[in-house]
Amino acid sequence: MASTPESTHAQSGEPAAAEPLDEHTMAALHTVSTATLTTQLMDRGLRNTFMQGPRPLSATRRRVVGEAFTLRYIPGREDIDVVSVFQDYDHPQRRAFEAAPPGSVLVIDARGRTRAAALGNILATRFLRRGGAGIVTDGAVRDLSGFARLDLPTFACGAAPTTNLAQHHAVDMQQPIGCAEVPVYPGDVIVGDEDGVICVPRHLAASVAHDAAAQEAVEEFVLARIDEGRPLRGTYPPDERTLREYRGAP
Question: How the protein assembles, per its UniProt entry (predicted)?
Answer without folding.
Answer: Homotrimer.
